[in-house]
Amino acid sequence: MQAEEIATNEERKTKTRLNKLQKRLRREVGQAIEAYNMIEDGDKVMVCLSGGKDSYAMLDILLNLQRSAPISFELVAVNLDQKQPGFPEHILPEYLEALGVPHHIVERDTYSIVKEVVPEGKTTCGLCSRLRRGTLYGFADEIGANKIALGHHRDDILETFFLNMFYGGKLKAMPPKLVSDDGKNMVIRPLAFAREKDIAEYAELKTFPIIPCNLCGSQENLQRQVIKEMLQSWDRQHPGRIETMFRSLQHVVPSHLADTELFDFKRLALGFAHGIDPSLGESRLSEPQAIDILSL
Ligand code: SF4
């Protein structure tokens, strides 16, 4: 086969793969938006762009959906330049200008604050993220954005779930949609149903100009790294487990856990199907499933 022919075949394969991934991501983002009513007609969505693969993919897919959506909403890309040494300031403005997307670059030297406050050798990501969040939430108010889109995906959500369970003693993940603590901002995670490996491949094929997050020299939280590796090894050994685990976050059965604040076990009484008074909080298991599981 001629070199030219081989190159054309490769290009064709890449294009097919890219189309397939884009369709999948579009579908998953569309489903997440629909399931949690993330975006409504007239919304102004501030899309937080860090320069990492996830936020590039989020913006790309949201722009794509915006073109064909039956509702009208605005997208504004916002990057926070945290003044980490070596941060290539020109990359995002150039990328966004070429795309023709309305955008803002917010400059705030959180790097110096973090360096001043966190003792040498300790991980800085916690404080850095809190400062970033605070600044971005404030900026959303300034520009009148009523939704803030963050690029966390399904793997981030599951990692957070296991981190909270293993190290925090709580069944708590990262919600696809939430109101900030001060009640002023609505945060959405349109990539909630998307897999990290799909996003990574999409970002590579789209050749997004990635800016690494660790320019500051900080290490990723070690515990998160351990959980990530655990999930990746399960995924290799048991394909489909990640999907099943994520589904479990969408099908919580309070009456079959042990949280007395979530389910009133004290008032549980005989005389109702499966011993559950619907007024106390109905089990979501249908009757046959409940019997199957109970008889295991
Ligand atoms: S790696 Fe550096 S820039 Fe990224 S979150 Fe951590 S401290 Fe912040």
From TrEMBL:
Originating gene: ttcA
Sections of the chain in a coiled coil: none
Source organism: Neptunomonas marina
Quaternary assembly: Homodimer.
Catalyzed reaction equations: cytidine(32) in tRNA + S-sulfanyl-L-cysteinyl-[cysteine desulfurase] + AH2 + ATP = 2-thiocytidine(32) in tRNA + L-cysteinyl-[cysteine desulfurase] + A + AMP + diphosphate + H(+)
Protein name: tRNA-cytidine(32) 2-sulfurtransferase
Names of required cofactors: Mg(2+); [4Fe-4S] cluster
The family this protein is said to belong to: Belongs to the TtcA family.
GO molecular function: 4 iron, 4 sulfur cluster binding; ATP binding; magnesium ion binding; sulfurtransferase activity; tRNA binding
